[in-house]
Design a protein that fits this description.
Helix content is about 50%, strand content about 15%. By secondary structure, the protein is of the alpha/beta class.
Length: about 375
């Protein structure tokens, strides 16, 4: 719906409420028996009060509000607009128009208008909060963290029918939040109950919404969640969400950095350029995933010679071919050797005299 159409519909709705409020005020003031001297003024009073109240509501930008997310701030704006509108109606009538309206009517009408206009806006908010139910395509999600970030996730997911997930509940270790609801979504337990909650509520996905938590804590929770069989997702950094760099649709899978239990180490490769330039560099375990990446990075800084040492002929051969293709001027020497063979390693050092050694030879699975 366009902004213009939305404003017209809201303005008509408010005009009806202001009119009804004025009529109710008269009914209450005279206990249902309204004297003729006042009823004959109603056709002239209604257009005046509707026009003045519309101007006041428009001035306070109430037709620019997204009532789906209405809060106390919007309620205060409604009260201010209707109070000022009622005062303006009284002043204009007394000083300019001179219609016969009892003074008590202004106050009663204002109170009824606040109740009906404010109430209608928040009924719409409550309706959307409570009745925008899970869509057939949405997966059942458990949100880890009932703080600001978790609330942000729930608010966005509940108001997007095309969202991939629908929030079923929260997990939070704060004892003060247990058995409570946040935005209509219950806190179902602490991290100790994650497995049980997954089973009881048939959860498909777990969304970690604790971006400010220490990496060690995140890693512990991930370890618990991995045992449940539910798909594990994680919220981007809060600052990225605030800056608009990442939308709620970009809730991502857990990656290796989330599993570290510590902040990832940032290697300043440019800072070691002088360290390896024109040097003989030995890389042990050069055929492995870590060793081969070290070879690629070291080769960028123009070493005099790079020694590729490893026990797997195929893997050493593959990285040798890759380096020769990408760095044709680089002197490359493949060396097949077991790192535990002391005599063979002594021969390598005696023959090639490496200036720098990157030791990447290790078992893949280290406890």
């Amino acid at each position: 719906m366009s902004y213009a159409m939305r404003m017209v519909l809201l303005a008509v709705f408010d005009a009806v409420i202001v009119s009804i409020s004025f009529l109710i005020a008269n009914y209450l003031r005279f206990e249902g028996d309204i004297p003729y001297q006042y009823t004959k003024e109603i056709p002239f009073v209604l257009p005046l009060t509707i026009g003045i109240h519309f101007i006041s509501l428009y001035f306070f930008k109430l037709y620019r509000k997204v009532w789906l997310y209405a809060s106390v701030g919007e309620l205060i704006s409604i009260i201010k607009a209707l109070v000022i509108g009622s005062v303006a109606f009284y002043v204009v009538n007394v000083l300019v128009v001179h219609l016969d309206v009892p003074r008590s009517i202004y106050l009663i009408s204002m109170m009824v208008s606040i109740l009906l206009i404010g109430g209608s806006r928040f009924v719409w908010r409550l309706y959307n909060d409570n009745y925008m139910k899970k869509q057939p395509h949405q997966r059942r999600a458990l949100i880890i963290g009932a703080g600001g970030s978790g609330s942000f996730v729930v608010k966005q997911l509940k108001h997007q029918r095309d969202a991939e997930f629908y929030p079923i509940g929260f997990i939070d270790d704060d004892p003060k939040k247990q058995r409570l609801e946040v935005l209509g979504v219950p806190v179902l337990g602490t991290r100790k109950e994650i497995a049980q909650v997954i089973r009881n509520y048939e959860i498909d996905d777990i969304v970690l919404a604790i971006p400010s938590a220490p990496k060690s804590e995140v890693a512990k929770i991930i370890d618990i969640c991995k045992k449940t069989g539910a798909r594990l997702r994680i919220l981007p950094r809060v600052q990225d969400l605030i800056d608009g760099k990442i939308s709620i649709q970009r809730i991502r899978d857990v990656d290796v950095e989330d599993l570290l239990g510590r902040e990832p180490i940032k290697v300043d490769l440019e800072g070691i350029a002088n360290y390896v330039e024109d040097k003989v560099v030995l890389v042990t375990g050069a055929g492995g995933s870590i060793g081969s990446e070290l070879c690629r990075q070291v080769a960028r800084f123009k070493p005099r010679q790079i020694l590729l040492l490893g026990h797997g002929e195929n893997s050493i051969y593959n990285i040798e071919l890759e380096l020769k293709k990408n760095f044709p001027d680089l002197a490359i020497e493949p060396l097949i050797a077991e790192i535990q063979d002391r005599d063979r390693i002594d021969d390598v050092f005696n023959q090639y005299r490496p200036n720098v050694v990157f030791h990447a030879a290790a078992h893949k699975h280290v406890p």
